[in-house]
Write a structure and sequence with these properties.
Layout lengths: L3 H11 L4 E4 L9 H11 L5 E4 L2 E2 L5 E2 L2 E4 L5 H8 L6 H12 L6 E2 L10 E4 L21 E2 L2 E5 L6 E5 L1 E6 L2 E5 L4 H11 L4 E6 L4 H6 L10 H9 L4 E5 L3 E7 L4 E15 L2 E2 L5 E2 L2 E13 L4 E4 L5 H5 L2 H14 L3 E5 L8 E6 L6 H12 L5 E6 L7 H11 L2 H4 E8 L12 E9 L15 H16 L2
Parallel strand pairs: 1-2, 5-20, 6-14, 22-23, 23-25
Antiparallel strand pairs: 2-5, 3-4, 7-19, 8-11, 9-10, 9-13, 11-12, 12-19, 13-16, 14-15, 16-19, 17-18, 21-22, 24-25
Helix pairs in contact: 1-3, 3-4, 4-7, 4-9, 9-10
Length: 465
C-alpha cells in the first residue's frame, strides 16, 4: 500500500540528504515555514522539509504536520515513480507508461481507511484547526495546493486536478480553476443550477499528485490513471458528505469534502505562481466545506509556490508533451522544460536529418502547450537539461540572422508577466543545430575509442574512493 509515509521512508533510504525534519515550533500562516524554504532555495538546496511542531490558524498547537518540496527535483520524482536512477528521460517515460496503463480502484470500508481516523461534519467543520501556510508576501491569504477530486454524475468519470485554494473563513475556500476538465464539469452543473461535489486531498503519495498534473484525456478515468502512475489500484472509500456519490482516497492524509457553489464567486489571490512572480487577484469560485476527515497527525503537502518545486511539479505535463512530440517528430530524442529553469522555455534535443526539422519540432511543441514561449533546438550530442551545454551550442552553432525565428501574435500564457496584452504575445525559435551536408568544425576531445577503453577503466578506479 502506497501512501505518504511509504514515500518518505523510500526517499530517506535512497537519498537521505533529500529529507529534513524540524521539531522547532513554527507558525506557517505567518510565513515562518516558507521563510525556511526560501533560505534553502537561496542556498541552491531543495530538500523535502517536514515541519512537525506547528500552530494552526487559530494560534493553537496542533498535531497536524506540513511539508514542502515533495516535488522539487528529479531525485524525488524518481522515488515517487519507482525509477532506480534519477534521470529525466527515464522519469518521463515511466510516468507516461503508468498513465497509459490504468488500474481499477480498490474499494474499502471506513475501518480500512486511515483518512477516517478523525471526522468533522457540517457545524463541526473549522479550517482554522489546520496549519495552512502563507507562502509569499503578496499571497491573499493562507493557501492550500490540493488535488481536487470530482465525479461527473452523468458519465461516472472521476477527474483529479491540481488547484490552488485560499482560505476565506471556517468553511469556505476560494478555488481557482483553469479552463480544463474540472472547469468544464462545473460549468455543466452550474448551467443546471447545481452545486458540484468535490474532495480536496491535502496529502497523499506524491505519485497521486503527479497524476493530477498530467494532460490526461477527457476519455480517461483519472482515478484509474492515478492507479497506473502509483503502480497499484487506488484505494477509495465513501465520502462523509456524499456517500457513494463521491469516493475519496482512503490512504490520504487529510481530505476536505464540499461543494463548488453555482452562481457564487469570491475574490481570491494574489498567489505566487510557477513563473516566479505573484499572479494577480482574481474573481474565483466559491467552495463550501461540508466535512473534514484526516489521519491523526496527518500532513499537508504544500507546493512551494513561485519557486523551483512549483516548476518541477509540472514534470507530468513535460512527460505528456515529450510523448506527443515524439509521435509528431520521431527525430526528437529528449526535451527539457521544467529543469531548464524556464519557466516558459523548452530545449529540444534531436537527431536532425534535414534542414527545417528543428523549426517544425519547435512549432509542434508550442502547439502542444501555451506554457512554451521560447524553444531552443539542439543536436543529440547536447543534453537539453545541461544549460552549460545548451549555451555552448547556442554560442557556437547559431547565427542570429538565419537561425532565430520570431513568431508574432501567438497565444501566450496568462501568467506571463511580460505580456502587454491579456493573452496575445510572441514566440521565439532558436535553431542551435549543426547544418546538414556542410563542412563544420569538429568538437575537440580525445578519441571516443580511447575514452571508452583505458580512459573509462582508470576513471572508474577514482569513483571507488
Amino acid at each position: 500500500m502506497k501512501d505518504l509515509n511509504s514515500f518518505l521512508e523510500e526517499l530517506e533510504a535512497a537519498f537521505p540528504d533529500e529529507i529534513k525534519r524540524t521539531d522547532t515550533l513554527v507558525a506557517p500562516h505567518k510565513y515562518e515555514a516558507s521563510a525556511v524554504m526560501e533560505l534553502f532555495e537561496r542556498d541552491e538546496r531543495h530538500p523535502l522539509v517536514l515541519f512537525n511542531n506547528l500552530v494552526n490558524l487559530k494560534q493553537e498547537n496542533t498535531a497536524f504536520k506540513l511539508l514542502f518540496n515533495a516535488f522539487s527535483n528529479i531525485e524525488k520524482m524518481a522515488v515517487a515513480l519507482g525509477v532506480e536512477q534519477p534521470v529525466r528521460k527515464l522519469i518521463m517515460e515511466k510516468y507516461y507508461q503508468g498513465s497509459m496503463n490504468p488500474k481499477p480502484v480498490v474499494r474499502v470500508n471506513h475501518t480500512g481507511a486511515p483518512v477516517k481516523e478523525l471526522v468533522w461534519r457540517e457545524q463541526e467543520v473549522e479550517l482554522g484547526v489546520l496549519p495552512i501556510p502563507r507562502i509569499n508576501e503578496m499571497d491573499g491569504g493562507p493557501y492550500l495546493t490540493p488535488i481536487v477530486v470530482t465525479r461527473d454524475g452523468d458519465s461516472g468519470r472521476y477527474n483529479i486536478s491540481w488547484n490552488r485554494a485560499m482560505v476565506i473563513d471556517r468553511n469556505h475556500l476560494g478555488l481557482w480553476m483553469s479552463p480544463r476538465h474540472l472547469w468544464s464539469t462545473f460549468s455543466k452543473y452550474e448551467q443546471r443550477g447545481e452545486a458540484l461535489p468535490i474532495a480536496l486531498v491535502l496529502g497523499h503519495h506524491p505519485a497521486f499528485f503527479m497524476a493530477g498534473a498530467g494532460l490526461t484525456k477527457i476519455s480517461q478515468d483519472e482515478y484509474e490513471v492515478a492507479g497506473g502512475v502509483l503502480g497499484e489500484g487506488l484505494r477509495v472509500v465513501e465520502s462523509e458528505a456524499f456517500g457513494g456519490e463521491l469516493l475519496v482516497p482512503a490512504d490520504a492524509e487529510i481530505i476536505l469534502e464540499g461543494l463548488i457553489l453555482p452562481e457564487r464567486r469570491s475574490v481570491e489571490g494574489p498567489f505566487g505562481e510557477f513563473t516566479g512572480y505573484s499572479g494577480p487577484q482574481r474573481i474565483s469560485w466559491l467552495v463550501e466545506i461540508k466535512a473534514v476527515t484526516a489521519r491523526k497527525g496527518g500532513a499537508i503537502i504544500s507546493v512551494f509556490g513561485a519557486h523551483q518545486e512549483n516548476l518541477y511539479a509540472h514534470m507530468p505535463i513535460q512527460a505528456d508533451i515529450f510523448h506527443d512530440l515524439k509521435n509528431i517528430m520521431p527525430a526528437v530524442k529528449d526535451i527539457s522544460w521544467v529543469d531548464s529553469g524556464g519557466p516558459l522555455n523548452m530545449v529540444i534535443s534531436m537527431d536532425k536529418k534535414t534542414e527545417g526539422e528543428p523549426v517544425r519540432a519547435a512549432m509542434a511543441a508550442m502547439s502542444l502547450s501555451n506554457f512554451i514561449k521560447h524553444v531552443i533546438v539542439v543536436d543529440d550530442d547536447i543534453d537539453p537539461g545541461n544549460l552549460k551545454q545548451v549555451m555552448w551550442a547556442w554560442s557556437t552553432r547559431v547565427q542570429a540572422d538565419k537561425d532565430i525565428n520570431i513568431i508574432k501574435r501567438t497565444q501566450g500564457q496568462v501568467l506571463d508577466p511580460s505580456l502587454s496584452e491579456e493573452i496575445a504575445g510572441s514566440a521565439m525559435i532558436i535553431n542551435a543545430t549543426v547544418p546538414v551536408g556542410q563542412p563544420y568544425a569538429m568538437k575537440a576531445q580525445p578519441p571516443e575509442s580511447v575514452i571508452n577503453s583505458i580512459g573509462k577503466e582508470i576513471f572508474d578506479q577514482f569513483k571507488k574512493y
